[in-house]
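Dear U.,

For the methods section draft, I wanted the exact inputs and outputs in one place so we can describe them consistently. I've listed the two proteins in the order they'll appear in the manuscript figures. Please don't edit the token lines directly; just add comments below if something needs changing.

First protein:
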Amino acid sequence: MRNPEVVVIGGGPAGSSCAILLAMRGHRVVLLERESFPRFMIGESLLPAAWDLWDRLGVRDRIEDAGYPVKRGVLFRIEDTEGFHEFLIRTDEFPQYFVRPFTFHVDRAHFDRMLLTRAREVGVDVRERHNVKDVIFDGSRATGVSYLDPEGQASTIEAPVVVDASGRRTLLATKLGRRYANPDLVKAAYYAHFEGAGRRLADDGSTVTDIHSTEGGWIWYIPLRRDVVSVGVVLDTAYVQAAPRGRDELFRHAVQNDDQISAWLSGARQCFEIKAIPSISYLSHSFVGDGFLMVGDAAMFIDPIFSAGVMLAMRGAEFAAEVISRGLRSGDVSSETFLPYEKRIRKPIAKMHKIITNWYDIMASRDRNHIFRLSQQAPLMREQLVVLLSGGYDKADMDVFLRESNSAALPG
């Protein structure tokens, strides 16, 4: 492609979605991905609010036909002062909010490749095994990128706009000193896939994401295609440091102490060595600048507890594509032009940050007055909770939610 208008760094959900939407608006886009797809990635549990975006991206039919397990909610197994209790949040309790009140558990290698294939179809110049090493600046304005091609040869691409979708590499945020650890969420994650494990199935064959509290944190259990499950343990870093253990021991200690999950994994085959993310939550002071934007995990990551990562990445990519297109057509690609994207995506980020920190407060205090129990007695609170956990960040009113939770508190 000659004279690209946008160069996108990274081909994950954020990068592919932004590139697709820009190309569909008629813009010339080059996407550089350092790996060759399919490639493994964590973050397999999606949210129902994505259906309208899948339509706009042109991938809805492919996602429906992929054979992913249907997800109809989340089951929280929480320990409080009265012991362990289970709370099922079904996303189809309030179907009026979304195109469809269910979603899928996806294997990300397949899902991400599907999006990258779609990007090629709409005219994006997708180049895999092209490793972006740096963003080029003229003063404070980004003007392109330098990269290594598959043969290791160095080259550059110039473009009026650079989109950093480099994921946890956070290429631009690191370069500019904007990335910082989230002081409210100092957590580490350990995870693996297992084949031949048990799973929770409804009568219609649908699944849920299991979230179980455990000593020092919580466990996720996500059924995938082809008899595979994703299992992860998220632990407070202080807990990890208090009794130093290796990643395998930390993971197995949590799993073995959960009767349900250990039973499901009995006889299962572990597909790969346990992987670790030592510092899972981080933020950036700003997501935009002259000639550049950061989207998805390249901008920030809060926590995996409510499966918001992919949703926020793709929704943010859509917001970014809107301001980029407007800026290219007007000839103004300054930070002022791009700032509405940041303001818009920070609103759902703030909502999720509140409810996520509330989750960790629940586990730390073991107070029975937690949002999942209270939502059983307060219908309006229940509705807001379901909408929020389904990804309806623009439909959920946090003030109403918090007011209802305060009024529903149990005596004693």
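Second protein (the one for the lower panel):
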Amino acid sequence: MAQKYWFKAHQYGYGWSPSSWQGWLVFFLYIAAIVYSFIQIDMTSHSVSDTLLNFLPRIFIFSALLIIVTYLKGEPTSWHWGERKESK
């Protein structure tokens, strides 16, 4: 049985897009974690700079986790420019 990828490789450029319900779930959990984290930090911060300094490390952590999941569960990717050529 062929492996079902959660994320498909982009047709142009480098990266992935969700291609199954599992991929979309991971993506929406990523967005929800960022929004919840921002609200939580903003409620206790005293200034904009305080909010940003506490929020940026969390964005880097959440983004790194998203990249790891897409790398493990996604289609192998490389730089693409247009249609992929099938090898014979």
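Candidate sentences for the figure legend, describing the second protein: The radius of gyration is 17 Å. Strands lie at 7-9, 12-13, 16-18, 80-81.

Thanks,
Y.
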